[in-house]
Amino acid sequence: xxxxxxxxxxxxxxxxxxxxxxxxxxxxxxxxxxxxxxxxxxxxxxxxxxxxxxxxxxxxxxxxxxxxxxxxxxxxxxxxxxxxxxxxxxxxxxxxxxxxxxxxxxxxxxxxxxxxxxxxxxxxxxxxxxxxxxxxxxxxxxxxxxxxxxxxxxxxxxxxxxxxxxxxxxxxxxxxxxxxxxxxxxxxxxxxxxxxxxxxxxxxxxxxxxxxxxxxxxxxxxxxxxxxxxxxxxxxxxxxxxxxxxxxxxxxxxxxxxxxxxxxxxxxxxxxxxxxxxxxxxxxxxxxxxxxxxxxxxxxxxxxxxxxx
Amino acid sequence: xxxxxxxxxxxxxxxxxxxxxxxxxxxxxxxxxxxxxxxxxxxxxxxxxxxxxxxxxxxxxxxxxxxxxxxxxxxxxxxxxxxxxxxxxxxxxxxxxxxxxxxxxxxxxxxxxxxxxxxxxxxxxxxxxxxxxxxxxxxxxxxxxxxxxxxxxxxxxxxxxxxxxxxxxxxxxxxxxxxxxxxxxxxxxxxxxxxxxxxxxxxxxxxxxxxxxxxxxxxxxxxxxxxxxxxxxxxxxxxxxxxxxxxxxxxxxxxxxxxxxxxxxxxxxxxxxxxxxxxxxxxxxxxxxxxxxxxxxxxxxxxxxxxxxxxxxxxxxxxxxxx
Lengths: 309, 323
Known about the structure:
The complex is a heterodimer. By secondary structure, chain A is mostly helical. Chain A is built from 16 helices and no strands. Chain A has one domain: Orthogonal Bundle (MetI-like fold), CATH 1.10.3720. In chain A, helix 12 packs across helix 16. By secondary structure, chain B is an all-alpha fold. Chain B has 2 domains: about 5-60, no CATH class; about 75-320, Orthogonal Bundle (MetI-like fold), CATH 1.10.3720.10. Chain B is about 70% helix and about 0% strand. In chain B, a hairpin with a 3-residue loop joins strand 1 (about 60-65) and strand 2 (about 70). Chains A and B meet through helix 1, helix 2, helix 3, helix 5 and helix 6 of A and helix 1, helix 2, helix 4, helix 5 and helix 6 of B.
């Protein structure tokens, strides 16, 4: 089965270094279509309006939430009060959850990126016995449903006394088979073999070549793998839900879900709904901002090395 | 040991001496390669392979009130295959896959092609705005849509009432699966669009030149040049979508809080497995369900790839026979 995977997933992944394609643009007379523009922007509304609602709602008091039109501001502007409640509810646990998420996802993403880069580089630039089978195993693993592993991993971790610790979230998130695949394709393209040979001629060791030549050329690929591993851990709900008991260790996803269920059980009597909504809004800001600021890197990382036709 | 054709490309011709024994330099390089791979494969083994095997092992036992853990053979699997709750949950995610994935990927492909054609104004902003939901965790997306769907103060219901359409029941038992499809579509169209768009951007110019001489229009160009060229990327999104839809967890578990009547504890296989393991404490049975789910995903992925390959072959043959 894995052989089929290999053929379908990778066309450029056989380790051959192909020359970089020139960035052409095929623009037939550069004509614009009004119809297409309108259609696309209508579709944009579908993706943006829910987020607009989330922003508008986080500026409303709990009562205005239920009595005013959802898509526009109404009642008093209570964003500051909501933020104040959010950051003081249960002794400021929301901030703790945000920091936990940051800690888990940044650590896991850094680790996953490093492991995937080293492995991808080895697959792209070396020849060694067992290369094919190891790479096929990696690709096959892309298909293993990670949530199916949560239960056995939980049992193994609880025997090792690792459940209800940050390690229970970080260690399983270090495996990124898709990251290895991406880095292999990217490294094959981005690092000329001549440069590695030249490094060897100069008497540099293999690891020095990797750190000083390889990593420098892998920039956009690194950002891409880092961001996508970051999102995977940041957005994960199942694994922390299974692994963690203490609410001080929760990441933001599990924390918000808990706040929400408390709000539903309270029948909305307290200001909890507006707290959940404001919390949801605040929690998505860091990732959205990261993607906006790093777009130049991750987009070129995907385009030039990532997924080829 | 076999020399792959890739290897010959990577070395200057002078080094390719016809000697069989590996030189010390080459041995050093091999060692370096293994060391580069080591950290990844240590984690790979302990976090993927060991849990998988352990899951299989657990699923072969049964916990008895008297006697503790006893070997049960395939009893847990037999139970799962006759468990209407499990089969129902599989049917539900299967239905989800058949309906939602074509809509989501069709929309993503349309958007990617539209952006690639550079015919629309503000393409760059469109691309980023549509991608943004990917940065929103499934938990937040579900919470948010849960409020948007709300019958009393949800904005969709407010608008529907204002224009005299009555109150739509997004959270009723019949509609909840559709409502969930909408949430997942909202979350992942942008992600799939970006993968396809990235592939479209790296189509070599020569392919277009041939079509240009042909005088092909935008639709012909998309259909007979662009889509075949990015087939591997499309297949990748299909595989990811199979995995995603069969593993649905956050969406049902959060919607359960606001629509308990519409979401049973076996709404999706994963949600069922979680409830069996952590509410009912039937670990062995839960392991069997997790393993079966993995098997189903692998089988579905395999057949979808097979179908994709066959189509590719047929497509290629068609193109060749055309004058």
